[in-house]
Every structure is written in C-alpha cells, then in structure tokens.
Amino acid sequence: MKLSRRVLIILGILIAIVPASWAYTSIQLSIASSKGVYDSPEQGMLAMADQYYARDKTVKILYAGPNARDGSEPHVWYVIAEVRASARADGSEMGRNGCDAPGSFFLQTTDGWVHVNEGAFPGFMGFWMDVFHMAGDGLATSTTHWASGQEPDFCQ
Description:
Blueprint: H1 2-35, H2 41-52, E1 58-66, E2 76-84, E3 99-100, E4 103-108, E5 113-116, H3 122-131
Antiparallel strand pairs: 1-2, 2-3, 2-4, 4-5
Helix pairs in contact: 1-3
C-alpha cells in the first residue's frame, strides 16, 4: 500500500512539472519577444548596445555561439561583446578603460532570436523549448569564434 502511494505521489509531481514548465517557458519567451526579435544573436547584442550605451560607442563581438560546447541545444547561444563608449546611456561611468564586456543569452524561437536574462534560466528554457517545439533550428557551431590564444581578460 505504501509503495503504490509513493508511486502515485511521484507520478503526480511529474505530471505537474510538464504543464508548469510549458507555462514558464511560454511566458518568458513572450516577455522576451515583446522586447525584440532579431535575425541573429549578434544583431540582438548590437541592439542591446544601442539601448544601454552612449551614441559614441564602438562594439566588437568577441564570441557568439552555442552555450553548450558540444553543440547540443543549438538554439541556446551566448554572446560576449566589448563596448567602448564615453558613458552608459543612463549616464553612469563605464568600466575599466572606458570599456564594458557584456555577455548575454539569446534563444532562437520559431520567429527569430530573443534576449533572455541569465536569471530567467535560459538553459532550462532551452530544454523545454525543444520538448514543446518552440525552438528554431539554431546553429551548432559559432558564428563568431573565440580567437585562439585570446586571453579571457576583457577591455585591455
């Protein structure tokens, strides 16, 4: 009797996880899409730079590629840029040497790429996007490769 009860509890929890994951992923993608849908993750990062930095900025994409090194989940990408400007759009000072090195996640939906904050759990979302057929095809290889021998020391 106790075993069947435990099995039913576990089964009930599993049945609840799927709809909750669908709802969470759908809501987060809707929020992200309302803020912008881009043709590529790089274009998304450039749009963010336009929004958050002064007009005199220069932007260099340092890396744009799948978050997973093995190319799994090719619809979940991470992009790192180097931005040099006189100030941020809100007037606050830039980082070291008038430079910031923002990095951010972009997920490919069936409509295009959207920016997703790290706090929204993009890896979790990416998994469920694949399960629920919300993900675009993605690309398994980087479009902007990390330069070999390049130090991970930004804004030098």
